[in-house]
Amino acid sequence: MSDPTDEQILAHARVHARAVIRDERNGLAVEFDALEWAVSRRAKRRAGSCRWDADREVATIVLSRRAYCAFEPSAFEAVVRHELIHAWEFQRFGEAGHGERFLERAAELDVPRHCASFTPPRYTLSCLECGWSAERHRASKPVRAPDRYRCGVCGGGYEVEHVESGRTWRSASGYGGAKAALGAEW
Length: 186
What we know:
The chain is α+β, with helices and mostly antiparallel strands and 186 residues long. It has helices spanning 6-22, 65-70, 73-93, 100-108, 141-144, 172-182; strands at 35-40, 48-53, 58-64, 123-127, 133-136, 158-162, 168-169. The longest helix has 21 residues, at 73-93. The two termini are 31 Å apart. The mean pLDDT is 93.
């Protein structure tokens, strides 16, 4: 589906959620009537989130439109199950996270701890010594000033690449220079 409506995305999510909740084998006793659903058109990295309103005792599951369009249906449904676990935690314990309780339920429901990326990174942070690397979507402190940080694996220095342009830098001034040189393409 190339351009689904928010209603279509939420219908898919709700149908899958009801099937998961009705399956008594997984022990995920989520109160469906205490769930609210929303679609985010802004989310670029997070496929879903679950917010808790303690005053109303309502969990709101927010799903990313971009993730829905990028993922296969089974991957999107894994995001729904992931957020349902958080809703269950909120409803039962008043808090949620990615700790042991989450991991236990995630294994039962075949859900990863973290969702796969559905957008390409803007930057790659790489160690000059051991080759360790990580993708970054935002200009974090190590991206903006790599010379102030050391690799946690070997202690080596970092180099950052702006993925789209291929420009690299190893210092705060290099970051500023790359950003200025790219201008509107940054």
